Amino acid sequence: MIISKEGWKEIGFNLASLFIAFSLWEIFTRYMDSPYFPGVGRIWGAFFLLAKRGDVEGITLLQHIVASVIRILAGFGAATVMAIPLGLLMGLYPNIYKRTRAVLEPIRFIPPIAWIPVAIVLLVGFSRYAFLIWLGAFFPIFINTLVSVPRVNPIHVNVTRIFGARRWYIIRKIVIPSVAPDMASGMRIGLGIAWMCIVAAEMIGGEMMGVGRLILKYAELIRMAEIIVGMLLIGLIGFLMNEVFLRVEKRLFRWRWEVSLD
Amino acid sequence: MFDERKEKVKIQVSKSFDNLLVLDHLDFSVYENEFLVIVGPTGCGKTTLAHIIGGLYHPTEGQVTLKDEMVSPKRHNISFVFQEPSCIPWRTLWDDIKIGLEIKGANPRFIQTRVKEMIELVQLSGFENYYPYQISGGMKQRVAIARAYATDPDLLLMDEPFGHLDAQTRYLMQIEITRVWEQLKKTVLFVTNNIEEAVFLAERIIVLSRIPARVKGIVPVDLPRPRDNISPEFLKIRSQITQMCETAE
Lengths: 262, 249
Prior knowledge:
Strand content of chain B: 15-25%
Low-confidence stretches of chain A: none
CATH topology of the largest domain in chain B: Rossmann fold
Number of helices of chain A: 11
Largest sheet of chain A: none
Oligomer: heterodimer
Distance between the termini of chain B: 28 Å
Structural class of chain B: alpha/beta
CATH class of the largest domain in chain B: Alpha Beta
Shape of chain A: globular
Number of helices of chain B: 8
Largest interface: A-B, 23 and 31 residues
Number of domains of chain B: 2
Helix content of chain B: 25-40%
Number of strands of chain B: 10
Strand order of the largest sheet of chain B: 6-7-8-3-9-10
Low-confidence stretches of chain B: none
CATH architecture of the largest domain in chain B: 3-Layer(aba) Sandwich
Order of helices and strands of chain B: EEEHEEEHHHHEHEHEEH
Number of strands of chain A: 0
Order of helices and strands of chain A: HHHHHHHHHHH
Strand content of chain A: under 5%
Radius of gyration of chain A: 23 Å
């Protein structure tokens, strides 16, 4: 990949911003001078110890990360697989949506955390995590797909209709490609929310692995440095996943991003 | 002279949207291999008429028949060049031009040769793998025209296809469309609000009134091609149509 001059400049500024953020935190912690506000050095140390020796139970950072990523991908994957067909279906047949709104819409506003008791009663083990993450990721993907269908350009539909295209052809070759960029941005939002649900999900999982669990473990011990390591990890992995997603999106939907010549 | 020609498309329609009457008992025909131009003021329902003739909308009253059958895109071989830019943004020019053949289930080898021919016809060779965002407005309209011709349609509808183009490109496209029509001799129904364009292209012009649209008159244009748009005969027909448009009901 070639990085342009503008690109390098952007990277430079971002590194500088990071440096300033860390410096401000460092100044703040020195000023506070309290075990609740560990400095950059102590956080870094905690990171190394966690990565090398593992936590109080000997579980390493990598194991925590892998466990969380797998849960997220499972919940997010299930959400995608269900939300896209359902969004398409209700977008194509708006009456289904209009007539079931009273059921669907209120569910959208129940925060995943509020589902925890239900999840505990109904599900066990891995499915609990997946369920809570699924709840968080489902609606952004579903709603984005749903509202995008009526925005398909009728000219593109007519281009195929005039040649006698059948409904199924129009759905496959016009509707889905038109909606795809909105589906993808829904997925990106859903992925972000999935990360936000991970701590809540791991709170009830009963397993000792996972980045969310790591935070909770050290919360009980009131060890801020390790907690901050867990927080920063969630932020960082989420950020990286989002970046990868954005790159793929830009590549796949180049036709939508580029400015037209006329 | 036109009486001897075979009537291919018969149009007898009225159309209203709610209480607004748009097309008021239009009744005319398009002959086999004719270049017929419908001219009328902006907002008189020309686009609606073109969509009805193509079977994309249904008339409120009456019907359109093509070869003595109710018109239907599923049954007939119709093409349409839309007023708005209509290139499919995620398809390359090549894939865009073949879409009609793809829908009609032509065999891949035929598609290959036919699309190549069409690209040469509208002079877009070398741009096969470009996407619409990479080409100019005039080129996009040429893609739409190539796509429309590719399926060898029984009826080709063109709804102000050059409306969005600048005067110079528009003029070049008019010459091009005449050239293509003379080469392929299809039945073309061309809709425009531009009287000069109508006289330049048409074998026969149907003049529509303001909304609700009625047929104000039918004018044959029997001038040799390529037409000279400042010749006295050309100007005479042009002013005749201008007068028709200006007279009150």
